[in-house]
């Protein structure tokens, strides 16, 4: 997958397909809310596995019934790349199975 920095327009186009996600402090980010703290912890583990599989790792913060995901590409000087959006789409696919919203 290409790891070049996305332009502002490319970033906006991709964000439109990912409701709930935003660019915050230069990172592609979303916070999920879950029914229980344990469910939130399970989502963290699932996302961690996806990240290892794809060798792309976000900041992953377990809060009180929340999970915050924030990612950028260090290998591209901290820019947003296709890898960040691919990870976000994968997380979106599995989050509902944990009751995340
Ligand atoms: C060598 C290895 O591919 C790199 O260190 C990977 C690992 N995980 C990564 N994760 C993220 N978010 N950005 C990167 O640039 C990155 N690089």
UniProtKB/TrEMBL annotation:
Pfam families in UniProt: Pterin_4a
Keywords assigned: Lyase
Catalytic activity, reaction form: (4aS,6R)-4a-hydroxy-L-erythro-5,6,7,8-tetrahydrobiopterin = (6R)-L-erythro-6,7-dihydrobiopterin + H2O
Group of enzyme by EC: lyase
Keyword Lyase: yes
Membrane-crossing residue ranges in chain numbering: none
Lyase is among the record's keywords: yes
CDD domains: PCD_DCoH
EC number: 4.2.1.96
Highest taxon above the source species: Bacteria
InterPro entries to which the protein is assigned, alphabetical: PCD_sf (IPR036428), Pterin_deHydtase (IPR001533)
Gene3D superfamilies according to UniProt: Transcriptional coactivator/pterin dehydratase
Signal sequence interval, chain numbering: none
Family: Belongs to the pterin-4-alpha-carbinolamine dehydratase family.
PANTHER family listed in its UniProt record: PTERIN-4-ALPHA-CARBINOLAMINE DEHYDRATASE
NCBIfam families: PRK00823.1-2
Name used for this protein in its record: Putative pterin-4-alpha-carbinolamine dehydratase
Naturally occurring in which organism (per UniProt): Streptomyces hebeiensis
């Amino acid at each position: 997958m290409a790891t070049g920095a996305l332009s502002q327009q490319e970033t906006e186009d991709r964000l439109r397909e990912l409701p709930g996600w935003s660019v915050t402090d230069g990172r592609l980010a979303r916070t999920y809310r879950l029914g229980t703290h344990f469910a939130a912890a399970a989502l963290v583990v699932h996302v961690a596995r996806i990240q290892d599989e794809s060798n792309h790792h976000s900041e992953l913060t377990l809060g009180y019934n929340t999970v915050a995901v924030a990612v950028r590409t260090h290998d591209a000087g901290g820019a947003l790349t296709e890898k960040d959006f691919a990870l976000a789409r994968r997380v979106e696919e599995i989050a509902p199975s944990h009751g995340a919203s």
